[in-house]
Design a protein that fits this description.
2 copies of one chain form a homodimer. Chain A is α/β, with parallel strands linked by helices. Chain A has helices at about 45-55, 60-75, 80-85, 95-100, 130-140, 155-175, 195-205, 225-235, 250-260, 270-275, 305-310, 315-320, 325-355, 355-365; strands spanning about 5-10, 15-20, 25-30, 30-35, 35, 55-60, 90, 105-110, 115, 125, 140-145, 185-190, 210-215, 245, 265, 280, 285. Chains A, B: Its cofactor is Zn(2+).
Chain lengths: ~375, ~375
C-alpha cells in the first residue's frame, strides 16, 4: 500500500467531509480520532483493546521515545510498530511541542533546539534533519515536521519569527526525509494571529506536503479563538490533503473541528482523565469516585455498548478507583476511547446524511462535555 | 450444580492425586492454583484475561472487601461474583490472616478479634458468626472458617491455645453458616509443631467439613519445615475431601505440595512480583528491568505460548517498566499466571502418566524458581 487521501463526501452544511486515508498499513475513514501512545503504548490499553474498539491509527511521541528507550533500540526492533506490536498505522509527532513544554532549558537557534531531558537532565539537540532521522527510525506511516510551538499568548513579532523559522524548518524536513514508506506532514503555526495563520497555511500549502497539521492550538487559548483560527486556516489548505488538528480531542472540539474541515485529531485528554477516574458519557462527564455512585449498580453510560458499560457497574468502578486498582484505569480508559469513537461515528453519520448540525445540537444539549 | 469432590486418579509415586472439584458454578480439575483477587479484582487483569488463561476459581479477601467497599455494597450488588462480573467459581478467605498481619491493634478474646482498619483506623469486631455472615454476603462458592493465624516462630503453649480456639471457632462457623449454595472449609493450624498439626487435622476431620485448608504456613518458616508439616497433616485428613494449602503458590511449592497430597493453592506471589517486574519463566526468574534486556528482542519466556510471550519482547517489556507504564504490569502478570497454569498442567500430566518425579526433577533443574 502507498499513501493517499481521497475526499469521499463533502457536507452541504459546513466544511466537514468524509475521506479515505490510505497509509502504508491501513485504510482509514476520516474524520478520525487518534489515541495517543506517548511512550509506545496507549496508557492502560493493550493493542487488542485498541483494535477491538476499531482504532487503526495511533500516535507515538518522538520526544519521549527518543529519550526512552532511545532511537537505537526502537530502530533495532524494526521500528515502533514492531517494537510495540502495533500492526496498524502510526503517526509520530516531531517533539516540537514537547521540547518547549516538557524539556528543561531549551534554547532555540536557526539550527534547531538545544534542550535538556526531563528524565535525566542530559543535553540534546533537535534539528529538522535530526528529527527526520529519528522519525525515519521510528518508522511511522506519517511523520510530522519539526516546528516551533509557542505558548498562548505570544507577542506578534515573536510569533511571526517563530512561524517563519517553522517554514524554513519545514523545507529542511522535506529535504532531509528519504524514507519511501513514510510521508511527512507540514505544521501550520502562527499562534492566534489571523494574518500569521493565513500566511502559514499559504506557505506550507505551496511546499506540497501530503498532509497538514494545524499546530500551536489548544495551548490555553479560549476555544472560540481556536475555532476562529481554523476558520482562517482551513480554506487556504489544499482540499485534497488531510488536515490534522493537533492535540485536540474533547468531544465538543471534534464536532467543531470537523465542521471546519478537520480530518484528524489526537489528544491525551480522554485517556488522561480516565486514569483520574473521569468518564466521558452520553449524559455528560461522570466522576467515578463520587460518593453518589457507591450503590449505583447501573452502567457507567447507559447508552454505551463497550465492555466496561456492558459488564461493570458504576459502584464497581468507583470501588476500583477508591482501592487504587489498575483495572479501574483500564476500564474507564477503554470506555472513554470507545465513546470518542462513537462520537466520531455519529459525526460521520451527520455528514453523510446532511444531519450534522441537528445531531451536533442534540449532542451538545445532552452531554455538555 | 451442587458441591462435590471426587478423586479421579491417585499417583503411585507419592500422595498426589487428580480430582474433580464441582462447585456451584464450575467443574474444576485439581490440583488447582487460584489467583488472588484481594479487592475484588486480580490485580492488573480483566475477567476475560483470567478466563482466557483457563482459571475457573479465584480468591477474594474477606477482610479487604468488608472494609472496602463494604459488605452492604457487595451484598446489594448480588454478591462478589456479580459485583466483579466473575462468572466462574470463587473462594473467600475468612480474614483470619489479615486481622493479624494487616490490621492494627488487634485484640483476641474467646468471642473473636477486635481490630482497627488499616485504611482508616476504624474499630471492628470479627467473630466466627460475624465472619460467616460476611462471607455469606460475599456469596463465594467456598467460604473459609475464621481462624487464628500465628506468626513463625510461636511458643508451643501459645500455638496450642490458638489452635484449640481455632477448633472452637470452626464449630461456631459451622453452626452459624446457613447458605445452601456455599460450603465452609475448616482450617488446620498448629504453627510448626507436629503434635499440634496432627491434633488439628484429626479434630477438624471429625467435624466433617467438605474441605480443609491448611493455614498458618508460608509465614516465614523454612520451606522444608512447611513440607514436613504437610507430611504430618495430610494423611490425617479425609481422602475424599479437597485439601487447600493456603497462601502458597511458588512453582517449586506447587510440585512439593501436590506430591504431599495438596489439591488447591493460592498466593499473591506471582501477581505481586509481576507488578514489580519479575517474571517466572521456564528458564528461571527474569528481572525485566535488568539492563541486559535493553536490546533483547526475544520473548520473555521462549517456551511460553501466552500472549505476552508470543506478541512482545523483553526489550519492550523492559521499556514499559522503565517508563512506568501500566501495560508492563499487565503483561507480566498475565504471563506469570499463565506460567503457573502451565506448571500445574505439567504436574497433572506427571500424576496421570506416572512421570511426576521425573518431570519434577527436570523442572527444578531447568528453572530453579
Amino acid at each position: 500500500m502507498g499513501f493517499s487521501f481521497t475526499v469521499k463526501h463533502a457536507s452541504q452544511e459546513n466544511r466537514g467531509r468524509i475521506g479515505l486515508l490510505e497509509t502504508f498499513h491501513s485504510r482509514i475513514e476520516t474524520p478520525v480520532f487518534m489515541p495517543v501512545g506517548t511512550q509506545g503504548t496507549v496508557k492502560a490499553m493493550t493493542v487488542d483493546d485498541l483494535r477491538a474498539i476499531g482504532f487503526q491509527l495511533i500516535l507515538g511521541n518522538t520526544y519521549h521515545l527518543y529519550l526512552r528507550p532511545g532511537l537505537d533500540i526502537v530502530s533495532e526492533a524494526g521500528g515502533l510498530r514492531r517494537f510495540a506490536n502495533w500492526p496498524e498505522s502510526l503517526l509520530t509527532d516531531s517533539g516540537g511541542f514537547q521540547v518547549f513544554s516538557l524539556a528543561k532549558l531549551n534554547k532555540v537557534t536557526e539550527q534547531g533546539v538545544n534542550f535538556r531531558s526531563h528524565i535525566d537532565g542530559s543535553s540534546h539537540l533537535f534539528t529538522p534533519e535530526r528529527v527526520m532521522e529519528i522519525e525515519m527510525g521510528l518508522g511511522a506511516d506519517i511523520a510530522m515536521a519539526f516546528d516551533i510551538c509557542l505558548p498562548y499568548p505570544s507577542n506578534f513579532q515573536v510569533a511571526k519569527e517563530a512561524m517563519e523559522r517553522t517554514h524554513r524548518w519545514a523545507e529542511r524536513c522535506l529535504k532531509a526525509h528519504h524514507r519511501p514508506d513514510q510521508v511527512v506532514f507540514g505544521i501550520v503555526q502562527g499562534v492566534t494571529y489571523r494574518e500569521l495563520r493565513e500566511e502559514s497555511a499559504r506557505t506550507l500549502a505551496s511546499l506540497g506536503f501530503p498532509g497538514y497539521g494545524i499546530g500551536g492550538l489548544s495551548v490555553g487559548e479560549p476555544k472560540p479563538l481556536m475555532y476562529e483560527m481554523l476558520d482562517y486556516t482551513v480554506p487556504l489548505l489544499p482540499e485534497e490533503k488531510p488536515r490534522y488538528l493537533m492535540g485536540v480531542g474533547s468531544p465538543d472540539a471534534l464536532w467543531e473541528g470537523v465542521a471546519r474541515g478537520i480530518d484528524m485529531f489526537d489528544c491525551v485528554f480522554p485517556t488522561r482523565i480516565a486514569r483520574n477516574g473521569t468518564a466521558l458519557t452520553s449524559l455528560g462527564r461522570v466522576i467515578v469516585r463520587d460518593a453518589r455512585y457507591a450503590r449505583d449498580f447501573s452502567p457507567l453510560d447507559p447508552n454505551c455498548q463497550c465492555k466496561t458499560c456492558t459488564e461493570y457497574t458504576r459502584a464497581y468502578l468507583r470501588h476500583l478507583f477508591k482501592a487504587g486498582e489498575i483495572l479501574g484505569a483500564h476500564l474507564v480508559t477503554y470506555h472513554n476511547l470507545y465513546f470518542l469513537k462513537q462520537v466520531m461515528e455519529e459525526i460521520k453519520l451527520g455528514l453523510r446524511t446532511g444531519t450534522f448540525e441537528e445531531r451536533k445540537a442534540e449532542f451538545f444539549a445532552r452531554c455538555a462535555n
